[in-house]
Structures are given as structure tokens and as C-alpha cells.
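Milestone M4 deliverable, item 7.
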Amino acid sequence: MLQTIRKFVIDNYLFGEEGKLGDEDSFMETGIIDSTGILELVRFLETTYGIKVTDEELIPDNLDSVSKIASFILMKQSVSSQTAQEHSFRSSGEPRP
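Output delivered:
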């Protein structure tokens, strides 16, 4: 996941200059991605990882570095998986755990 995110950022914002991006580097502090770039990044994440990023989630804690994005995606996928399990329990008429 880290490599996929890093490759997208390098290809789209650093124009292939791989050595300029560490996993913890802040996109905002380094000027790598601007507000328009964040929207492109979000579209990529939603399409690639099957998640939905809400307006409330468009914050630096979630999207300001490769590492933060990876953690955010894992959290979103975990919540989505848990919600799907709860829905399947309700649909089957079985009691929720």
C-alpha cells in the first residue's frame, strides 16, 4: 500500500523525482500537494482502495503524508468491513455479537 501511494504522489506531483519523498514527509509543509492536488489524491484513493472520503475526513491528520494516508485507508477499510459484518448479521436475523 505504501508503495502504491508513494508511486502515485511521485508520478503526479514530483514528476518522477523519487528521492524527494519520505513516508513521513508532510505534503503541505513541503508544498508537494496543493488543495487541487488533494482532490485528485482523494479520487485516486477512493478508486484504488474502495473507500469513500467524507468532507470531514479531508484533514491533515488523514492525508498529509504517505504514512498518514496508509493508516487512514486501513482504518476506513476496517470500519467498512465491520459495518458490512453488522449488516449481514441483521439481514440474516441472527443476533449481533
